[in-house]
């Protein structure tokens, strides 16, 4: 069942009913100001940091779902309705939400009145612009009222929802014409404020939630609207909001447009404080002056659209499969850009309060956006590396506003160091910019400890070398990629808090998955050493890589698949010897994509075992069989019910690992089949089962052991976006950046047909046509570049050439 459709020409997903299975959201903002908006106008806004600088309030887990946002109430006679349906939920004569790239548009009709609401964040301003156009489509004049409404958050989102004894005495606003200023806590010299304004003289206003909504009234039936209009309330303490009342008269066929601006401003850093609660309105007034006319709004919107269209031209495929085209060209890359901005911090599943930016997460996310914004990818690598410790380990998370490590979470996730090598290598392969390795980067953000970035990579590599367990495999620490696999957790008493380090004596838990990572990214580290002329170091690194590869083949092999790990007692995890959790997806995918076991035939066996034991119609499960009860030696992984999350759920994030692994073995049909099972465009028809947005990836899908098999969870902010884009763009379609140029190495189904990829790479534009006359699944037998045949499958870079016409024959 569908709840909308793709409009590929407009780069939009069109939602045709507000009653979607879950709220379906979009992200607005490219730089510092961000908003989340749902298909019913729910959501929230913040500046840079969703925890520390939250501008509007949102209530998670509320009923009805998605019940706070930026609302426009239209009171037409005795009927009050909203363009986005919520919160009044008045039945509409027509409803449509178009989620586009960086904007959302709502169109609704009721009793001959049409409302068109466009929401977007301008590229260069710290605000969200809402353009509301009202049209009288009836044959008689219409006189009605429009009420705007936003509820301000008291800045720190966590404190806002917990510290009521203080916060219910701090609300403070100021009204200046059509602009309502939210200056709560300003007298603390926080130097910032928010504002909500309209480009018309209001017929009324409210700034107190109790006055506008009512102490005991629902948002669907505000007191002010029911009682005839706003009260002119000025919030003091209690709950600050911003509401405008506008009286509108339209003749038949007439339209009128209002521009509403929700903004954020700061005083100049050198400003002298005349009084602690007097705000400097100049920054807000300068911003608002740009959006007093529709021409100003239209120009900003055109600039935003042009920005995204140019950005998405960085990788564009033309194939006969329209679903591949729309995901690769539009939605997959767009989601990668959102994960660049948000990491795992702010969505409808991540509250923006706890996690901040992840070390591992941000390194992986970089894979999906480095070709779009390489200069920002460069800075992101430096920010990430700055949270690393001198021994090579790292803070697992850092706050986006301060860029300092999150001490509450700390370190100990032993896969983290290797992801820094992975992200840096991906950046250099894309850009050819080896100079990043010479950038001076501190440890733990202490400028006294600055060393070249290359030294950070060396510490990452050496951390794994010096942290091995009894079998010679890498120690898992608190966890590896699977945060819930806590094999060093132990307790004498059931129910006690878990410890996160191994016993002081005896074996230490080990990870086969990190072993696969070390082989894969250790090779990159060795190449970087060689490029710097450190040939002895490169040779020593490859010796360690080869040693680890043999260790994985020996101690990490279970007979038909790779083991997952050894727990703190030296017991196997992910083995046929286990009662439950016999096979895990992570080592099968990552060990094979690293090349482990290919020539020995073990890779084929491992992937066959995945298909036999883990595959389902909705994707590959993370493990099987699911754990039916709690296992103290495994930690959180067995705390979930069977089929959910890490306990047998379908983690969309690591399905691409198996698909890439299949391309290593030349299995194009199988690789593409895995790709399709979790790809939103291919499962749009089962949206009533999948539930999450049909245009972006979810973190996980409930597995076959779950009651709601196939139901998606945790959409948008997931490493699935980056890894899937790497999978489809580099390993299936086969346009892969390498240190010395672009490598053409497709692996597709036999009947996929010819296709063309346009790819921006190192200042040049490549147009690559790939044909497959013999219907093979992998390999290039002829490569022609600008009319000249070249040997192999690498397009060499020619200095001064900015256009490449490439013909590749499989």
UniProtKB/TrEMBL annotation:
Biological process, per Gene Ontology: carbohydrate metabolic process
Domain Glycosyl hydrolase 94 catalytic intervals: 307-734
Keywords: Glycosyltransferase, Transferase
Protein name as it appears in the record: Glycosyl transferase
Organism: Porcincola intestinalis
Segments forming domain Glycosyl hydrolase 94 supersandwich: 12-292
Keyword Signal: no
Signal sequence segment: none
One GO molecular-function entry: glycosyltransferase activity
